[in-house]
Specification:
The chain is α/β, with parallel strands linked by helices and 426 residues long. The chain is built from 12 helices and 23 strands. A 6-stranded mixed β-sheet has the order 3-2-1-7-19-18, with helices on both faces. Helix 1 (8-16) runs parallel beside helix 10 and helix 5 (125-144) runs antiparallel to helix 6 (148-154).
Length: 426
C-alpha cells in the first residue's frame, strides 16, 4: 500500500500499519514529518527547524515493513493503481493495492498568487526560514538606514490573517521586539517596531466561541499589536500593502507574512476526476463515512484534504482520520466490515504570547496563564520523539523564562529589499 504525505495524517496511518503483514510506502516531497502548528516559533527564533521536523526514516526506523520515498507526487492513476513522483528530474512509479492520500493544504492567496513574492505564507520549513530572515533582517536594515521614513517601513511588520497562524506570529513578533531584542541595537529601539495584524473579519480567532476572540484581541493589544479588523488586502508589493477598510488605504511595511487562507492540495482534483467524489469550494474531497473515496473503495483521503461532516482542518482530525483509514485497510484484510470515523474533539488552542493563550475543549473555555499551561502540555505531548520534546522544553524555558532566543541565525540572501533606488514615500 502507498501513503501520500508525511504530515499528521500520513504519519499516524503509517504507525497504525507498523508490524502488520503489509508493505507500506510513504511518498512525499520531503522526508521529514512537520509539526506545522509550531512553524511560527521557528520563524521567530524560539525553536530550530529540526525540533519540529524530525526525519521520517528516524521515526519509523523500527517499522521494517515501511519504506520512505522522496518525490513530489505528480500523478495518481486510480485505474492502474500507481503513484508517480518526481525529484531532480527522476520519476518513480509506485504501485499500490490500497492508497491513503494525506497531501494536506497549501497557502491560498485567493487568486492573487503574485502576493507570494512579497508576503510568504507559513506552511513549510522553507517558509519559516524565509520569514525568520525577513523579521530579523528587517531590524538589521533599520539599524543602518539613515532615512527616518524608510527606517519606519523596515520596522513595520504586516501580518495578514486573524486565524491562529496570524495571531500567534503577531504575538511573537511583538514579544521579540519588546523583550528579546531589548538593548541589542544602538541606532534603533526595537520596541518602536509596529506590528499590524490585518484581518477581513470583524474579530480575530473567529472560530473560537464565547468571549475567547475578545480576550485574544485584548491580549494582543496589551503586547502592542495593532489590530486592523474588517480590512481586506487589495494589493501587496515590495514596500507595503494596499488596504480596503475603515483605516488608511496603505500600510508601508517591508515585512509581510500571509496567514489568511489555505487551499487543498491539487491532488484532490485528480482524485475527484477519477472517481465519483465531489470537491467542495476549498478543493477538499467529499469522502464516505469511513474516509474512502466514492467509487474507489481502495482509495482513502484523510486530513485537511478530506471533507467529512464539516470537520475542521486541525491536526487532530488528520491524526484520527489517518489512523482510521489504516485501520479500515487492516480490517478488510481480516475480513471485518468497514466502520465510520468517530471523531473525538480534543479541543482547539492558540498561543497569544508568553504566558497567554486561549482554548476550548468541549464546553470548557480558558484563557490567560491557564490556557498557556494547557497549550504547553498539549504541544509538548504531540511533538514527535523524546529528544525533540526535551530540546523544545529547553528552548521554551530559555525564551519564556529569560529573554534570549537561540535560533536567530538567518541568511542575508533571504532578506528582500527594494534596492538602492527605493523612492521617497509620503
Amino acid at each position: 500500500m502507498v501513503i501520500v504525505g508525511s504530515g499528521f495524517g500520513g504519519l499516524w496511518a503509517a504507525r497504525r500499519l507498523g508490524g502488520a503483514d503489509v508493505a507500506v510506502t510513504i511518498v512525499d516531497r520531503t522526508t521529514h514529518h512537520l509539526f506545522a502548528p509550531l512553524l511560527y516559533q521557528v520563524a521567530t527564533g524560539i525553536l530550530s527547524e529540526g525540533e519540529i521536523a524530525p526525519p521520517m526514516r528516524e521515526i519509523l526506523r523500527n517499522q521494517a515493513n515501511t519504506r520512505v520515498v522522496l518525490g513530489d507526487v505528480c500523478a495518481l492513476d486510480l485505474d492502474a493503481r500507481t503513484v508517480t513522483s518526481s525529484v531532480l528530474g527522476r520519476d518513480t512509479v509506485t504501485p499500490y493495492d490500497s492508497l491513503i492520500v494525506a497531501a494536506g493544504t497549501q497557502t491560498s492567496y485567493f487568486g492573487h498568487d503574485d502576493y507570494a513574492l512579497h508576503a510568504p505564507g507559513l506552511k513549510t520549513i522553507e517558509d519559516a526560514l524565509r520569514v525568520r530572515a525577513a523579521i530579523f533582517g528587517a531590524f538589521e536594515m533599520a539599524e543602518i538606514e539613515p532615512d527616518a521614513v524608510r527606517r519606519r517601513a523596515w520596522m513595520t511588520f504586516a501580518v495578514i490573517g486573524g486565524g491562529p497562524t496570524g495571531v500567534e506570529l503577531a504575538g511573537q513578533i511583538a514579544e521579540l521586539s519588546r523583550r528579546t531584542l531589548a538593548s541589542n541595537f544602538r541606532t534603533i529601539d526595537p520596541a518602536d517596531a509596529r506590528i499590524v495584524l490585518i484581518d477581513a473579519e470583524h474579530e480575530v480567532l473567529g472560530q473560537f466561541s464565547g468571549r475567547l476572540p475578545a480576550k485574544a484581541a485584548e491580549s494582543l493589544e496589551r503586547l502592542g499589536v495593532e489590530l486592523q479588523r474588517s480590512t481586506r488586502v487589495t494589493g501587496v508589493d515590495e514596500t507595503g500593502v494596499d488596504l480596503d477598510g475603515p483605516g488608511p488605504a496603505r500600510l508601508e511595511a517591508m515585512t509581510k507574512v500571509w496567514g489568511a487562507g489555505v487551499r487543498a492540495s491539487p491532488l484532490g482534483v485528480s482524485v475527484a476526476e477519477q472517481s465519483d467524489a465531489q470537491l467542495n469550494r476549498k478543493g477538499q474531497v467529499h469522502v464516505e463515512e469511513n474516509c474512502s473515496v466514492p467509487g474507489r473503495a481502495e482509495v482513502f483521503v484523510v486530513g485537511d484534504l478530506m471533507a467529512l461532516n464539516d470537520l475542521p482542518g486541525v491536526a487532530e482530525v488528520a491524526m484520527q482520520s489517518g489512523r482510521h483509514a489504516a485501520g479500515q485497510i487492516l480490517a478488510r484484510l481480516d475480513g471485518r466490515p468497514d466502520r465510520p470515523l468517530r471523531y473525538h474533539d480534543l479541543g482547539t488552542l492558540a498561543s497569544i504570547g508568553r504566558y497567554s493563550a486561549v482554548g476550548e475543549i468541549g464546553p470548557l473555555r480558558f484563557s490567560g496563564f491557564l490556557g498557556w499551561l494547557i497549550w504547553l502540555v498539549v504541544h509538548l505531548t504531540f511533538l514527535t520523539g523524546f529528544k525533540n520534546r526535551v530540546s523544545a522544553l529547553a528552548h521554551w524555558s530559555v525564551s519564556f523564562l529569560g529573554r534570549t532566543r537561540s535560533e536567530r541565525t538567518f541568511s542575508t540572501d533571504q532578506v528582500r529589499g527594494p534596492g538602492p533606488d527605493w523612492g521617497e514615500r509620503p
